Amino acid sequence: MITINLLPSEYRKAERTPLVVFLPLIAGLVCVLSAGAVAGYVRFSWLAEVRTEREGLDQTYNEKKPRLAYHDNLLKEESEYQKQAETIKGIASSRILMTKRLDELCNLIAEGDAGQHGGFVIWLKDLNVKPAREQRGRGKQKGPKSGGEISFKGFALADEAPLQEMNKFHQAIKNSEMFRDGYIGMTDPKGSVQVFGDDLTPSKGWSLEMAMQLKDPAERLKEIAEERNLQAKREAKMKGNRR
Amino acid sequence: MKLVLNRKQKAWTIAGVSFALVLACAGVVWVDHGEIEVERKKISDAKSRIQKADATISKLKSVEDRVLVERVRVKEYTKILPLEKDINEFVRRITEFEATSGVEVEVLDDKSARERGKTKTREAFVRIIYKIELLANAAQFLEFTHLFESYDRFVKVTELAIKGGDPKIEKDGTIFPARHKISMVLETYVYTPSNSISQPVEILNADQRISALAEELADVESLELESYDFASAPRRRDPFANPRRSPVESDQIDVESLEKQQALIAELEKELGEILKSAAEEQKEKDVVLRFELGRRIDARAAAFANRLRELDPEKSFSTAELTRKYENQVGKPFAQFLAERPEVAGLDVPLKELEKQLDKMRETYGEGNWADTVALGTALLQSRPEAAPAEMASRFRDVEELMARAQTRLDFARIELAFNGMVLAKDAPERSVVIINGRAFSPGDRFDEALVVKDVRPTEVAFIFRGEELLRRIDD
Fold first, then answer.
1. A77, A87, A200 member nearest B67 (Cβ)
2. Confidence tier at A243 by pLDDT (50, 70, 90)
3. Rounded to an integer, what distance in angstroms lies between the CA atom of residue B113 and that of residue B188?
């Protein structure tokens, strides 16, 4: 039988949502609301909490920054002062006492006048002192470091055999305490005999041309300090043996 | 056109929309989770930074101490370098050295000194160069160089060129000794800390902290410049002067020897002139104390001069009668007249030098801690003390007595047996610190016996007052 509802639509009984639609609607709503809740929790609780903690730590670190800057400035100043102390030490140990070196040379020549070292008469015409040249280029310099050079020209005077006089002078320098103390080497003797051809004596001279390499003053001071330490150790050992 | 869906389609649509919304939420969660991971990493970094910062901050005190020690070290080291005022006065110093040594400065280039500071540099040490050209014989030049090298501020001769000269013989036969042409380059450094450290870091109570850093500062050694004990040798042959002679000259009178003799007379004359000038100034001096002090110095100088003349035998020292006469007229007689007016000089001669030598020896033994030797040397010296010693000598004997007394004090102090059994240090109130010596407790100010008072208790040593002097005894001794 066919039933027809003749009531106007506003008086008709409302139709229930079909179950086929209602169930997915409810299920979908539950899922969406749950997902929204999870998303909300993650964003507004979890993430916010972590952010707050991080901001707090940043704040703590920022509060420490002035002390850290103070520390860095102190370190910078310390390093600068250390550098300066080293520079002054370097300056102080860079000096070669020219009075000592020249006085010793004059003494040696005077000793030759007095007949020591076999006797010789030396007449210096020129003397030059040059500082050590800066080491350029790659590669390490071989041998000890030079502190500069003393070079001189002149004559070893004699009436008979000036070459012998020159050799004696050269040998006297090599054997001298001053040479051991202050120099690392010297050039081999070279020159030629010169007959002056006047009536003055000595009548001949061997032209001298020598260059002596000075020890690097810092290295020399180090050697002296090492020698002193060794001496102190030896003395201490001797005292110990006596006991 | 209206879209009409049947039930099935509606159901699928709802499911699809829901799924899309859930997916969107999942996406948000995924992004936020990533964000959380990033934040956690930042937290971990921040924590580690804070930890490092705390560790750094905890070391601040020791860094401050190190900086204070370095400041003291650099201040101590820079004492060897000239100050600004020394540089400004350096030209005057060169003039003084020129007059003292007898060299003749012909050219002085101090451009480098005058132009310092005009160019900006970040270096704390500014190098200053002086170029000098002069005329001198070897002895004068060595004296001149020595004056620079023994100057208490660092000066270095970096370059040098000597060109031997010839003696000058005037028409009247007067010989002027050879003077050589010398050019030299001197170098020094001025310390300008503001070039590299604009403003030192301000450390609270720096001065008090420095005084508390005694142990660390004990390692700060002062920088000493190497020195040479140069003794002028006016009679030594000048190696740059031509030693060749004519046979006649060699047989009769050695020209070089004459040059030396003339130079010696000139030197003695100069020295005497200075003594007489000082004596004239002494007469003009109105201040009694200054006059006394000036007189004392003149006596000492005159005594040394008298001693020098005594060693010089005019008969043997001068080859010609003319030179002997010159010496007598210009040096011997005027000085004898001067001595006649100042009898107090007579007693100051060799013994004074010997006394000074012995006194130096005493100082050396005292410095080395060999106080028994100091006392022995002092006792021997005091036994030889004349009853009426001249003022200069009496002053040296007073030094001997004083040094001997100090050495004796140290010897006696070293003999006192002090066994340290323990200590309690009160950092905030040092006067409440306690040290246990020979089983008895003492605080600063307590008397150990009649002569010995505990002054201060320190972590490694105890300071005592003994016969008015502060002496230390290490705890581990």
1. A77
2. low
3. 10
Considering only the beta carbons, identify the residue of B164, B223, B228 that sits closest to A89: B223
Closest by alpha carbon to A218, among A116, A101, A91?
A91
Given a contact cutoff of 8 angstroms between Cβ atoms, the answer to whether A122 and A154 are in contact is yes
Nearest CA among B339, B357, B265, B358 for reference residue B299:
B339
Q: Which two tokens stand for residue B257?
A: 């020897």
Collect all residues with Cβ–Cβ distance below 8 Å to B453 and sequence separation of at least 6. B445, B446, B447, B464, B465, B466
Angle at the Cα of B203 from the Cα atoms of B201 and B204, rounded to 5 degrees: 150
CA dihedral B441, B447, B451, B453 (to 10 degrees): 80
Check A24 against B14: CB less than 8 A apart.
Answer: yes
Cβ neighbours of A53 in B, within 8 Å: 39, 43
Task: Say if the Cβ atoms of A123 and B29 lie within 8 Å.
Answer: no
What letter represents residue B200's amino acid? P
Report whether pLDDT(B346) > 60: no
Q: Give residue B151's region: left, alpha or beta (phi > 0; psi -120 to 50).
A: beta
Is the predicted pLDDT of residue A134 greater than 70, yes or no? no
Maximum mean pLDDT: which of A209-218, B226-235, B279-288: A209-218
Interface pTM, i.e. ipTM: 0.77
End-to-end CA distance of chain B: 113
Phi/psi at B240 (nearest 5 deg)? Answer: -90, -10
Give CA torsion, residues B8, B10, B11, B16, to 10 deg. Answer: 120
Cβ pairs bridging A and B (under 8 Å): 259
- Does A126 contact B201 at a Cβ distance shorter than 8 Å? no
pLDDT at B476 over 90: no
Contact A170, A177 (CB under 8 A): no
Instruction: Give the number of residues written for chain B.
Output: 477
Interface test with A, best of B32, B47, B81, B254 (most A CBs within 10 A): B32
Q: Is B94 exposed, middle or buried (0-12, 13-18, 19+ CB in 10 A)?
A: buried
Of the candidates B381, B389, B390, B387, the residue with the CA atom closest to the CA atom of residue B361: B381
Closest by CA to B140, choosing from B110, B165, B159, is B165
Give one DSSP letter per residue of B246-292, joined into a string: -HHHHHS--HHHHHHHHHHHHHHHHHHHHHHHHHHHHHH---HHHHH
pLDDT at B113 over 90: no
**Token pair of B114, please?**
């005058």
β pairing state of B104-109 and B125-136: antiparallel
- In this structure, is the dihedral angle defined by the CA atoms of residues B65, B67, B71 and B73, taken in order, positive or negative? positive
Looking at beta carbons, which residues of chain B come within 8 Å of A61? 46, 49-50, 53
Taking the C-alpha atoms of residue B29 and residue A40, their distance in angstroms, rounded to an integer, is: 8
Q: How far is A156 from chain B (nearest CA, A)?
A: 11
Residues with Cβ within 8 Å of B98's Cβ and at least 6 positions away in sequence, in order, are B104, B105, B134, B144
Stated pTM of the model: 0.59
Spatial distance between the Cα atoms of B191 and B366, rounded to a whole number of angstroms: 35
Over residues A77-108, the pLDDT tens digits come to: 999 999 999 999 888 888 999 999 999 999 99
Task: Name the pLDDT band for A116 (thresholds 50, 70, 90).
Answer: confident
Which residues in chain B have Cβ-Cβ distances shorter than 8 Å to A125?
Answer: 163-164, 240
Q: Judge contact between A103 and A182, C-beta under 8 A.
A: no
Say if CB B404 and CB B382 are below 8 A apart: yes
| Set of chain B residues whose Cβ sits within 8 Å of the Cβ of A196 | 244
